[in-house]
Amino acid sequence: MLDNSEKKARFTSPSMIDLRAEYASNEEKVRARRNSDTLNREQWLEKKLEIAQKMLNGPRPFQAWSPSLDDLRLRQRSKDNIIDQRLRPRRLPLPSSLPPEDELKVDSLFKQSGVVSKFAREQVSDKDLVRLMPGSWLNDEIINFYGALILGRSDDSKENGDNAIVNGVASPKKSKILNVHYFTTFFWQKLTRDGYEKGRLAKWTKKVDLFSKDIVLIPVNHNNTHWTAAAINFRQKRIESYDSMFLDRSAVFKVLRNYLDAEHCNKKKAPFDFTGWEDYVLKDTPQQENGYDCGVFTCQFLESLSRGEETFNFSQDDIPYLRRRMVWEIGHSRLRTDP
């Protein structure tokens, strides 16, 4: 069958014959047109020149936009601003004063005599409260009372689930107040003067598991000349120092690391694992412009940290308002929730 098939003429469909004929005729037409172009080269050139002249005289084509270097920089800066806003939401500015009725209440608190307010184990008298007037240095009583308010708010939030404004941004999704522990101003004095063992600092946390807290807040008095805020941040694995004069506080990190290790050995019977921990200083820490507002800065650092803030929305210009705000808060034994 194969041999016979080779001898027979192969079958070709009519459609294939037609296609081939059409292809051959097209080739002849193209060849003829090429010959015609070759024979009439001058006419062909005249026609092409006429077409080119019409294009030159016709409307200009739309020019594609090509961004300049300034345009590209502006576009990139806009993208950076959007990203920065998402990472660090813009803060609401602090007001310049309290509501009128609260301002009157502050004035009346300054006129009281004797004990003005009590909270937990702390109390503030008229002689202490006057230190919140402009130009005065805060004492232990004011700072410890304010620290007690911070600690009390943290304990209350664990019970009723209250939320706080974070980073000064009004949002329906508010982060919860952190689980904090506050050491009074006398803790740092005992730690630096007597040490962990001699100062019997293990008793200070007899009823508290320090390592279950989100953050430990510590006001630091530097030789009765300057207040700063320090923190042991378990959430971020950081030993933190916030100084409104931005001085060298490397000694603070060393002392707190030694304390943390001693406390862990005492309570957990093993050295503290510092893997992943860092000594942290915020570069844009608000700075004071005088020699007496450090205590107010310290209180505001501690209050902001207790709400999980990473930065601060106040400056030297806000201190007069914050002093009167603190008077109101001490007089009412609670921290305000408005910005």
Automatic annotation (TrEMBL):
Coiled coil: none annotated. Gene3D superfamilies: Adenoviral Proteinase, Chain A (3.40.395.10). The keyword Cell membrane does not apply. It holds the Pfam family Peptidase_C48. GO terms for cellular component: nucleus. Keywords: Hydrolase, Protease, Thiol protease. PANTHER family: GH15225P-RELATED, SENTRIN/SUMO-SPECIFIC PROTEASE. Belongs to the peptidase C48 family. This is Cysteine proteinase. GO terms for biological process: protein desumoylation; proteolysis; regulation of macromolecule metabolic process; regulation of primary metabolic process. Residues 122-305 form the Ubiquitin-like protease family profile domain. One of its GO terms (molecular function) is deSUMOylase activity.
